[in-house]
Amino acid sequence: MKNLYFLALVFLSYSIHGQDDLFVSSYNWDKTPEYKLPVNNEEPMMALKEKYVTEFAYSNDNAFTEHYLEHKALWLNSNDKIEAYNKIYLPYSANSVLLVSKARVITKDSKIIELDESKILTAQDEETGKHYKYFAFEGVEKGSVIEYFYIEKKNPSYSGIAFRLQSDFDKKNIDFDVYSPSNLVFQFKSYNGLPEVVQDTLSKDRLHWNLNLKNLEGLQKEEQAPYAASRGYLIYKLDKNLKTNKSDLSSYGKVAQNIYNYYYTEPSKKANSLIQQFATSSAKNNDDLETQIRSIDNKIKSGFILSEFGDENLTNLEEILEKKVASSSGMIKLYVALLRHLQITHEIVITSDRQVLKFDKDFEAHNFLKDFLIYFPDLKTYLSPTDMQSRYGYPPAFLTDNYGLFIKEVSVGSFKSAIGKVKYIEPLSADKTIDKMVLDVQFDQEDLTYNLIKLQRSFSGYYAMPFHPYMDQIIGDNRNEMMEGLAKTMNENIEVKKMELVNENPDLFGIKPIQFIVDLKSDAFVEKAGRKYLFKLGELIGPQIEMYQDKKRVLPLENEHTRSYYRTLNITLPKGYRVVNLDELNIENKYDENGEELFSFISFYELKDNVLSITADEHYRTNIVVPSIFEEFRKVINTAADFNKITLILEPEG
User: Dihedral through CA 533, CA 539, CA 540, CA 546, nearest 10?
Assistant: First the structure.
């Protein structure tokens, strides 16, 4: 898709100066650096200097180029960090040229050891076949500094670049610079507390923007935090060409039109015939809208191969429909062609993974446009055309609860075009992803330490998606192992007596939950203690996550999707025995915000005759838990773990 976003260089042609005038051309490091090494510092590492320069310019033959400089001096104070940084990888691709590369080690005694050319090595990734270059540092001891810089000339990228400055260690003396010809104006925006980039008003022959930081505190990783999206970073993009009076050069309006022109072309006569055949075999005329979409999605995901390569044939509809192989772009073309043939209203959506980059609805930059969805406005549902593991109605969850660019086809008379609008991608509600468990438990009258248990467990939504669509492929011993493994999540020490599956048809995913029914026997849940019996009721629901947090939470916690758990435990008590600690079963821990319950764990019981019925339900109705309510979330999570520890005491009556 890169070509769709790349602005035509004809709009930019405006010769300013030659390549000899570049800032990076004369750049070098100090021959005798005077870095102030940390004293009595127990941190494993620190950056003493980081300098980044991106310089756009026209060459003497008027070609538009980008030069990138990176210069770092890293103080390493642990063996782990020395091992982690004994190789520094360098840019190496067909689209770039490495102009300068230097590296050296500065010992804690200020001895300088420069790496010669023999220490710049080339290797090949055995899996991908790609080559790469790296500095191989030697003689690095605790308290040493490794320093390197390189200058790369490459094809320009300017429609939206995310530049991450914050890491998990402290940094000092950070410089970020962008230079451009005086007619090309860039825009910048900083995120997560990073200061804004400022323009150097004293620069005369070119435009210059800079961000200088004396200190940048490291950001530590936390459990389930979107670390990449939480670090301090900035984004820059080309906004105006003063020479041609063109503005909004990175606008989403142009993107919407380019996307439309690429994906909504009229198929050839042969392709139309193949589309007709495929649509007829996938969806029936009397099917409702949702059934048609689900049928098409299931047939493509189960019958086509998504190729990682970008061969032109993999975007050709005739080739795709005949050979059942497509690239990502080809797969999107296939969905669009079928949906248009069936006259199903839809919109293409482009968004980002919120773990990595939150889509900014107020700053138009192409680096947010990473992942494709298809939206059905009549149903308010989505599908992913390029994630072959997902299914209709359940797009990759980290692409939801985020903003995205919605591209809608519009018609004016016979003229068709597209408009783009940034909108919120609603996450699925918790009732769309359910783990439901019903347990009927009896005690063996001959030996009360044994239980006879019927487990009925069903999964829907994201919990079922990893296996339900593939149940026709999970057969024989693999199926038995899967069902037995599910039962043994309660405890390894169980004996499976009987197993049954309900709603196993893959086509029922998203329509009915798949249900596992297992009869089993176990002595893992009861212990004899004199005349009493200790019944480990909580362990029947299986191990539960317990969250610990020694320090105050800094980063938000993000779940992949909302979800609900429903658990019903029907315990037939042995004759002549009663439970003495029933009150432990009454638990309520929940958090409400603005009248809406966000997360909760509630359990209670009912005793009728000798049957003890226990309900334990758990709900997580929001994905993003900000630090201010993290403790409330943690309490609910840990309440489920507390229930898991409940042991009922059974003693003889009378």
Answer: 160
Cα dihedral 338, 261, 93, 89 sign: negative
CA 284 to chain centre: 36
The CA distance from 571 to 614, in Å, is 8
3-state secondary structure of 617: strand
CA dist 249 and 108 (Å) reads 49
User: Tell me, what amino acid is at 105?
Assistant: V
Q: How confident is the model at residue 548 (pLDDT cuts 50, 70, 90)?
A: confident
Cβ neighbours of residue 354 under 8 Å, at least 6 residues apart? 226, 229, 398, 399, 401, 402, 558
Side-chain-side CA neighbours of 567 within 13 Å: the count stands at 23
CA distance 393 to 620: 19
Residue 237 in contact with residue 366, Cβ under 8 Å? Answer: yes
492 vs 525: CA distance, rounded Å = 11
Structure tokens at 180: 């451009």
Average pLDDT in the 40-49 region? 93
pLDDT score of 348 more than 80: yes
Quick one: average pLDDT of 11-34? 73
Q: Edge-to-edge strands of the sheet including 87-90?
A: 87-90, 131-136, 120-124
pLDDT of residue 10: 36
The predicted model gives 428-448 an average pLDDT of: 97
Nearest Cα residue to 429 out of 636, 621, 624: 621
Token pair recorded at residue 224: 């389930």
Q: What percent of the chain has pLDDT over 90?
A: 83
Helices 328-341 and 289-303 cross at an angle (nearest 10°) of 150
Beta strand pairing status for 112-114 and 96-106? antiparallel
Angle subtended by helix axes 289-303 and 269-282, to nearest 10: 110
- What tokens does 619 get? 């709900």
User: What per-residue confidence (pLDDT) applies to 20?
Assistant: 56
Tell me if the pTM is above 0.90.
yes
CA distance 339 to 374: 10
- Rounded distance, CA 346 to CA 418, Å? 12
3 state SS of 539? helix
Three-class DSSP labels, 56-102? EEECCCCCEEEEEEEEEEEEECCHHHHHHCCEEEECCCCCEEEEEEE
pLDDT value for 248: 84
Q: Supply the pLDDT for residue 19.
A: 55
Q: Which domains does the chain have, with CATH numbers?
A: 2-247 (2.60.40.3140), 252-425 (3.10.620.30), 430-652 (2.60.120.1130)
Which pLDDT score, from 0 to 100, does residue 4 have? 37
pLDDT band at 170 (very low <50, low <70, confident <90, very high): very high
- Please check the confidence at residue 89 and state whether its pLDDT lies above 80: yes
Cα 18 to Cα 57: distance, rounded to the nearest angstrom: 8
Reply yes or no on whether the pLDDT at 266 is more than 80.
yes
Cα–Cα distance, 397 to 562 (Å, whole number): 9
* 392: Cβ contacts below 8 Å, ≥ 6 apart: 290, 293, 294, 297, 298, 381, 383, 510
* Rounded CA Rg of the chain: 31
